[in-house]
């Protein structure tokens, strides 16, 4: 059991017999009242989301998960194949189960997979990934007031804003938590 105030984004908890992943966490405390926690949870069985508020001292059942580092090897329709680098065991995961991970998933990219009773329930990426710019307009010289950005389409199909000096074919570093440009690779 864990206190609701100790939860963090990414934790997996069990409520009413279902597994939930914590998508958002906000701790609220005011001087006279007891602390409360506002949570946005995702049901790992059916994908539905739940917004709830709990007292900070309320206990919830945390779930022990097995962590594996896996490598993305190919895409087949709406399914992504991941391989365990130690055992070479492969699993296929639907793109809806991966969530925002698909926006930053390049071939041979590393995915951290959490398993509950040998079933994959949660997926995350390293903080930064390197991706190639597939398309962007050329930057105009002299257009440099402030911090000008332009749209760019990455090799994964995801679009972000990049500085004017970034060109097609360049590799850039992207922050997977914010989806923003970090630097050139």
Automatic annotation (TrEMBL):
<dbReference type="InterPro" id="IPR014722">
    <property type="entry name" value="Rib_uL2_dom2"/>
</dbReference>
<dbReference type="InterPro" id="IPR020599">
    <property type="entry name" value="Transl_elong_fac_P/YeiP"/>
</dbReference>
<dbReference type="GO" id="GO:0043043">
    <property type="term" value="P:peptide biosynthetic process"/>
</dbReference>
<dbReference type="Pfam" id="PF01132">
    <property type="entry name" value="EFP"/>
</dbReference>
<dbReference type="Pfam" id="PF08207">
    <property type="entry name" value="EFP_N"/>
</dbReference>
<keyword id="KW-0251">Elongation factor</keyword>
<dbReference type="Pfam" id="PF09285">
    <property type="entry name" value="Elong-fact-P_C"/>
</dbReference>
<feature type="domain" description="Translation elongation factor P/YeiP central">
    <location>
        <begin position="67"/>
        <end position="121"/>
    </location>
</feature>
<dbReference type="InterPro" id="IPR011768">
    <property type="entry name" value="Transl_elongation_fac_P"/>
</dbReference>
<comment type="pathway">
    <text>Protein biosynthesis; polypeptide chain elongation.</text>
</comment>
<dbReference type="GO" id="GO:0005829">
    <property type="term" value="C:cytosol"/>
</dbReference>
<dbReference type="InterPro" id="IPR013852">
    <property type="entry name" value="Transl_elong_P/YeiP_CS"/>
</dbReference>
<keyword id="KW-0648">Protein biosynthesis</keyword>
<keyword id="KW-0963">Cytoplasm</keyword>
<dbReference type="GO" id="GO:0003746">
    <property type="term" value="F:translation elongation factor activity"/>
</dbReference>
<dbReference type="InterPro" id="IPR015365">
    <property type="entry name" value="Elong-fact-P_C"/>
</dbReference>
<protein>
    <recommendedName>
        <fullName>Elongation factor P</fullName>
    </recommendedName>
</protein>
<comment type="similarity">
    <text>Belongs to the elongation factor P family.</text>
</comment>
<feature type="domain" description="Elongation factor P C-terminal">
    <location>
        <begin position="129"/>
        <end position="184"/>
    </location>
</feature>
<dbReference type="InterPro" id="IPR001059">
    <property type="entry name" value="Transl_elong_P/YeiP_cen"/>
</dbReference>
<dbReference type="InterPro" id="IPR013185">
    <property type="entry name" value="Transl_elong_KOW-like"/>
</dbReference>
<dbReference type="InterPro" id="IPR008991">
    <property type="entry name" value="Translation_prot_SH3-like_sf"/>
</dbReference>
<comment type="function">
    <text>Involved in peptide bond synthesis. Stimulates efficient translation and peptide-bond synthesis on native or reconstituted 70S ribosomes in vitro. Probably functions indirectly by altering the affinity of the ribosome for aminoacyl-tRNA, thus increasing their reactivity as acceptors for peptidyl transferase.</text>
</comment>
<dbReference type="InterPro" id="IPR012340">
    <property type="entry name" value="NA-bd_OB-fold"/>
</dbReference>
